[in-house]
Structure formats: structure tokens, C-alpha cells
């Protein structure tokens, strides 16, 4: 029997199902167990009477992307690092596709920093509210990774190709107010008001016909559009695997981990 701690918690609240990333001591950094727990939570929610799904993070961060320390623990062998990376990025991309095809509205309460591939969880949400202290940042060029999680598959559709390239070339930190101006969030508020912002949206959604919301989401994320996103995510994963085991990338991870202590 697997008795490891669950890295995702769920809570029914005021007409929505909240899903919490629960690895706060590591800023909810992504590891396979967290992503598998998240897949399970999304699948269970999709199988029940559909209500809005809300994703948030415990602690100070929403999620800081792939756990660099975990990558380094698998870097003693090239094949081991490749296997781990394929496992992790594949699971992240599956979660993103599960969110895009979810049978009810998907919301995000962005309580803190969002970096690396975890940005895909925000990009896959229909609407998100960001804390004033939250920001987005890629960090790929600081380490040598290929972008994953939708930084090239989804972000350009929201902000345009030129802005998506600028953010990633310059490793630009996109603070909450700029994210609002770019259309990457629908609301910026103090952390203490995130719950209230989400509650307001859930109430407004609930006053409409669920069948209409379902049809709207299904038509926007139709089969052809999902297939296109899946193909682009597969390209991201292939690039990630091409770069991850190179000596300069391992050196970049070691340097980055040293900065973070």
C-alpha cells in the first residue's frame, strides 16, 4: 500500500471544488508524485457532477516549476535523467490537457510566484485572480532548459509571439499588474481577497446555465484545437529532452541550485 503524503488536497467550497498544490516547503515545485495526485484529483472531479474547478497553492508560492534538486538527484546517469524528465514533463502536459478538456469552468487563485512549467496550470485556466505579490517568470534561459508547460504552446496565443519571445529571451519577471494589462489574469487583489474574487466568479457562473458553459468551453477547446496544443506540447517535451542532459544544462542546474541555496 502506498502511504506517502498526498501532495494535492481538495476541498468543496461554495459551489466549487478547490484543488490545492500541497508541497509548500518546496514552494509547490513540481515532482511526479504531485502531478500524479493532481491528475487523480482532476479526473475525480470530472467524473462527478461538474462544478467549477479552482486551482491554488498552499504557502507562499503557487508553484515554482520543476524541482531542480530532483532533476539533479537523477543526473548521475544520462538515461536516468532523460527517463525522469520524460516522466515529469509528460505528466505536466497531461495535466494541462486534462484541464483544457475539463467539463466545467476552470479557475485559478494565484497566491504567489509562478515560474517554469507550472505556468501551464495558469494558462490552462479560463480565468485567474492574482495576488498583488504574484508574478510569472520563465527561468529557462537561466538554466538551459527547453521551455515546457505551454510557454511556447499556449502563451503566444494570449500575448502575441513577439511579447512571448521577449519575456523568455530576457527572462522577464511579469508582475501582477503587467499580467493584467497583457490579459494573463482577470483580476489583481491582495492575497486576503483572492478567495472572495473566486467566490464572486463562482456565484456568477452558477447563475447561468451549466449546459451553456459546457457548450461554450467544449466549442472553444474542440478536438482540433486540443490536438494542436497537444502537438505543440509534444514539441516542447522533445526539445526539453534534447537539452536536459547536456553538460552545460547540468552545470546550469547546479549553478541555479547554488543561488537558491
UniProtKB/TrEMBL annotation:
Superkingdom of origin: Bacteria
Short name of any one Pfam family annotated for the protein: ECH_1
Keyword Hydrolase: yes
Gene name of the encoded protein: fcbB2
Coiled-coil residue windows: none
Protein's name according to its UniProt entry: 4-chlorobenzoyl coenzyme A dehalogenase-2
InterPro entries in alphabetical order: ClpP/crotonase-like_dom_sf, Enoyl-CoA_hydra/iso
Gene3D superfamilies the UniProt entry points to: 2-enoyl-CoA Hydratase, Chain A, domain 1 (3.90.226.10)
